[in-house]
TrEMBL record:
Residues 149-238 form the GAT domain. PANTHER family: LAS SEVENTEEN-BINDING PROTEIN 5. This is GAT domain-containing protein. SUPFAM superfamilies: ENTH/VHS domain, GAT-like domain. It comes from the Eukaryota. GO terms for biological process: actin cortical patch localization; actin filament organization; endocytosis; protein transport; vacuolar transport. PROSITE patterns: GAT, VHS. Component of the ESCRT-0 complex composed of HSE1 and VPS27. GO terms for molecular function: phosphatidylinositol binding; ubiquitin binding. Transmembrane segments: none annotated.
């Protein structure tokens, strides 16, 4: 099992390079969708998965070969398919085509079949009998977190998990690095692998009944295969992110306006006579012997030319108001 996965990149490359190879691929896929292969769900699962891969890449080179007979095989599988995993994958694939590839003319027959079958499915789901069947199955037959599913379903779940992991491994190897993070198929395989890993862990730890030794070993091996594929995806993702240049830092914006200073809020003090650009502050009042004070002079008064008597003489000064010298005490 799984040897056919090794040929997946080769099949994709051949279908992309050769229209003849693309037509042959469509023919082989149609063969395995036939009723006689319903007893081999793994082959049908691979066929549906390959249908989706080739419809995305190479695209129209492949889908132009999906004629009415191909659509009839798909219709049979939708209506009479016995394996729930195969049927679920087929429904998801058709939904993917309907949502993302409506412009592909090669898918017109498949889309016509799907739209009719979708209406039938939706009408069936609205009937009360359907809800009664779902309720009964949920309460009696569906597996819980502590019970194993029926053997046939368990085998299908294990097979689907292993195939999803191997396909993820192969698609990672055949996809250019710069396309990995945006590849929808890789995203889907990653989602399937994570869900399958959770299911395998639940099956391993269930106790009603517990898995036999052979089944337990198969579950553990399957979980290891899934973890290896997911680890490769995470390593690839981290490598891509580390190789991308870091975004440039945004330059810091300078303030567009200067702060407004309130002139009335300045701290007054003695003027800095050594600094010709200093703001001439109002000088403090003079303190005379005996505790008398002289009122501070305004700048206007200080600007007048005055005369100072210095022991009998007077001098002109632009800095102080008129004063009279009496002994050692200068008074007005």
């Amino acid at each position: 099992q799984g040897e056919e996965v090794l040929y997946l990149p080769t099949i994709v490359d051949s279908a992309e390079c050769s229209p003849t190879a693309a037509a042959e691929s469509a023919k082989i896929i149609k063969k395995y969708l036939d009723m006689k292969y319903h007893a081999e769900p793994q082959l049908q699962y691979n066929a549906v998965m390959l249908l989706r891969i080739l419809a995305d890449n190479p695209g129209s080179t492949f889908t132009r070969n999906l004629d009415e007979r191909f659509a009839e095989k798909v219709k049979e599988l939708l209506k009479q398919g016995r394996d729930p995993g195969v049927r679920q994958l087929l429904v998801e694939t058709l939904e993917h085509f309907d949502a993302n590839k409506r412009d592909d003319e090669g898918l017109q027959y498949l889309m016509a079949v799907w739209h009719k079958q979708k209406l039938i499915i939706e009408r069936y789901r609205t009937q009360p009998m359907f809800h009664a069947m779902v309720s009964e199955r949920t309460s009696s037959r569906m597996p819980t977190m502590t019970s194993l599913p029926p053997l046939e379903e368990l085998v299908g779940r294990i097979s689907e998990a292993q195939m999803s992991a191997k396909l993820l491994h192969q698609v990672l190897g055949s996809t250019p690095k710069d396309e990995v993070l945006d590849n929808e198929l890789i995203k889907e395989f990653v989602h399937r692998c994570r869900s399958a890993s959770t299911s395998m862990a639940d099956f391993i730890t269930c106790d009603s009944p517990p898995p036999d030794p052979d089944t337990l070993q198969t579950l553990i091996e399957t979980n290891d295969i899934i973890r290896i594929a997911l680890a490769r995806y995470e390593a690839t993702k981290e490598s891509i992110q580390m190789s991308q240049p870091a975004p440039p830092e945004e330059p810091r914006s300078l303030p567009t306006t200067l702060p407004v200073v309130d002139p009335a809020a300045r701290i007054e003090g003695p003027p800095d006579l050594d600094n010709p650009f200093s703001d001439p502050a109002i000088p403090p009042p003079l303190i005379f012997p005996g505790g008398s004070r002289q009122a501070s002079r305004s700048p206007a008064a200080m600007g007048r030319v005055t005369r100072i008597d210095t022991g009998g003489g007077t001098t002109n000064s632009p800095l102080v108001s008129p004063v009279v010298c009496k002994g050692n005490l200068i008074v007005e």
